[in-house]
Every structure is written in structure tokens, then in C-alpha cells.
Amino acid sequence: SGCNSESRGALVVLEGLDRSGKTSQSSRLLTYLEGLGHSVELWRFPDRSTNVGQMISSYLSNKSQLDDHTIHLLFSANRWEKRSLMETKLKTGTTLIVDRYSYSGVAFSSAKGLGDEWCKAPEIGLLAPDLVFYLDIQPEKAAERGGYGDEKYERLEFQRKVSQCYQVLHDASWKIVDACQPIEDIEKQLQELVLECVMACQKGKPLANLWS
Ligand code: NYM
């Protein structure tokens, strides 16, 4: 176990609708990998701690209004401002568990009617994940879990559209996990797959850029 300083970390992304369990599973993965002695960090997008992130946060909480294209580009800028740190972390052996990434960007904006290709364009050149988990849940089931807050997008009608956009977006490399299973069962499935991925990256799997 452990990791040597020569090998790179893995970029692991969790995607899914609001209330699909991404945040709990991300922190469980963090604990798991830490327990095995890996260098690992938990990241999330939007990263609300930056200036751009604060603009996003204010938009999401309905404190400001922005044109759909503008907010899309801010979400993307929020990933771009973290790209070089992300690359440094990965290259120096730290695995990153990332709660939402470019796919959220494309799914949520295309659910509003923006074109897929337009939505993808600003994401080109960001680091490509080594592993994408999709926590699969029916929008109705997610809504039943309650806890939809007052943030933008947290409405069943809209989540249905987002769900459809994710269907179009995902490819064969994504690991689709049934998010309605018991929490511990999901956790076990993620653990196995993440470990495989971390090993492959340690053994020299090259880092790539989106979209590839
Ligand atoms: N969201 C998130 C987007 O619309 N585009 C993006 O690029 C990202 C990363 O922000 N409803 C949306 C999805 C969520 C909202 O995310 C806030 P979270 O995970 O609730 O903090």
C-alpha cells in the first residue's frame, strides 16, 4: 500500500443529481483511501471559496441574476482557476476525489436549453478524470429524500431535465452505480473501483485532457 513519490494520484469524479448521495460517498472514499495510507484530498465544484465561486454561490442562492451563458462560463472559470493546482497535486502523488466536475457543468446548462457543444467548449483542456462515478437515481426518488433547499435548480421538473442530459453525456467508461442501494453497499462498490483506478495511475496511466 502507501504510495511512492514517483507515481501520480488519480482524478476521481462523482456525478449525479442533487440528493443522489455524492457528498456522503465522496467523504467515505476520502476516509477509505486515507486509511490505506494514500495521499488524498476531497474537492468539490463549485468551489465557493474563490471570487468566482462567490459569484456562483450568490447566483445559486438567488441573490444575483445572471444570463445562462454567463453563469455557465463562471462555473467553467471556477474549474480553470483550479486546474494548475489540480495538476500539481496529481503529479506529486495526491489522489483527488472531486464532488461534481465538467459533466455537471454541461448537464445543468444544457438542461436549460444551451447547446451541448457550446457547453463543452470551455471545458476543453481541463484535466480528464481517470474515473467517473454516476450515482444513478430517479429524479422522483431524489426528491423524496427531501432536503432540496432553496437553491436554483433544486426542483423536480428541472432535475428531470438534468437527468436526461446526463444520459446523453455519459459514455461507456462511466461507472453507473444504483444510488438507491444501502449506503454501505454503494460504498463497497466505489471502494473496489477506486482502488483499481489508483493502482493504474500509480503504474503510469497518463493524465489526459477533456474531452477524451
Ligand atoms: N452546478 C454545478 C452547475 O450548474 N454547473 C456546474 O458546473 C457545477 C459544478 O450547482 N445544483 C450546479 C449543480 C448544483 C449546484 O452544487 C451546486 P452543489 O454540489 O449542491 O454545491
From TrEMBL:
Family the entry assigns: Belongs to the thymidylate kinase family.
What is this protein's name?
Thymidylate kinase
Query: Where is the organism placed in the taxonomic lineage, from the top?
Result: Eukaryota, Viridiplantae, Streptophyta, Embryophyta, Tracheophyta
Q: Which residues cross the membrane?
A: none
Listed GO molecular functions?
ATP binding; dTMP kinase activity; nucleoside diphosphate kinase activity
**Gene Ontology CC annotations of this record:** cytosol; mitochondrion; nucleus
- What GO terms in the biological process aspect are recorded for it? dTDP biosynthetic process; dTTP biosynthetic process; dUDP biosynthetic process
Keyword set, alphabetical order: ATP-binding, Kinase, Nucleotide biosynthesis, Nucleotide-binding, Transferase
Residues in Thymidylate kinase-like domain copies = 14-189
